[in-house]
Amino acid sequence: MSSIVHTEHRDVIHDCSYDYYGQRMATCSSDQTIKIWEQNEKGQGQWIVSASWKAHSGSIWRLSWAHPEFGSVIASASFDRTASVWEETAEQKPTPSSTPAKRWIRRTNLVDSRTSVTDVKFSPKNLGLVLATSSSDGIIRIYEAPDICNLSQWTLQHEILCKLPLSSLSWNPSLFRAHAPMIAAASDVATSNEPKVFVFEYSELNRRWTKTESINVTEPVHSIEFAPNVGRSYHILAVASKDVSIFNLKPIVEQTGTSRFEVSQAAQFNDNFCTVWKVTWNVTGTMLATSSDDGYVRIWRMNYQKLFKCICSYKPDSSSVSHPLDSQTAAIINSTTTKFFKKGVGTFVASNQIQQH
């Protein structure tokens, strides 16, 4: 099932982010506004705006929802060199349309970056209320809220220096205690042949972040995301660039006690014939959704041999699949994409529309 959401944004939409349960979504745009959407209980597949406000004085690149354990909280990253944390307050009086209006308050404005803040991500809940930002100045900044009941106070805990301007970052969502906190960051600079994907790991002993790997992706990278880990002994990282690449990172502990990773490429798909802008995993880390500038959303599925294959492609103007599928695969698509892609992928078919699958 697919439906077109007319967002009425007045400029290009840069991000569409779903909450933990996939029942609400937030959109941001170059029109400097954020909109919060909720599913209409009376109409299947319909989304209605519950809140809309001007959030920054520049284009808003990325949004991130905190875990619901910390309340209704989102963070935004903007070209105006700031990242903001917003919290939903009690409902106001109903509007004439009888739709309750939600009010979002800016709790803090993080102003440490001297350049555009390109991405923002809340950490897994086991790390507490922690927020990471990436900037065009090549720095990852990690903030923590010491008191989750007072979101106006955030402490800059770490600054991780990278040699290149950064475009995207991703926390490793693994909840296993044996896995140290990990962050991957990527650059979209086009003037260098250096590796553009970096993996950092936090050492509890040294109380600092250390770069453990540089992954040899030389094309500009627009999006990266770790796959959820449901018991694997290794990590999976998807990279959106000129192609779609999937890497396995197997932890190796050196005799000196330091850790590194054995990096292997699990898959590379170069049949998009276009730039890939967004990658999103399902909750089991076995299916990957990608969106590219040809307007297609493609679904890649891991089989029992741990090989990935494209099982369907959605057209931007219909819900049909672009190539024939057998009945079993079609059933998997209809059930699994709805059930397991809690974040979802939006295809931006116009400056004020989102096609949602």
Automatic annotation (TrEMBL):
InterPro entries: Sec13/Seh1_fam, WD40/YVTN_repeat-like_dom_sf, WD40_PAC1, WD40_repeat_dom_sf, WD40_rpt. It is found in: Lysosome; Nucleus envelope. It comes from the Eukaryota. SUPFAM superfamilies: WD40 repeat-like. GO terms for molecular function: structural molecule activity. The keyword Transport applies. One of its GO terms (biological process) is cell division. Keywords: Cell cycle, Cell division, Lysosome, Mitosis, Nucleus, Protein transport, Repeat, Transport, WD repeat. Signal peptide: none annotated. WD repeats lie at residues 6-38, 53-87, 269-303. GO terms for cellular component: lysosome; nuclear pore outer ring; Seh1-associated complex. Belongs to the WD repeat SEC13 family. This is Nucleoporin SEH1. It comes from Polypedilum vanderplanki (Sleeping chironomid midge).
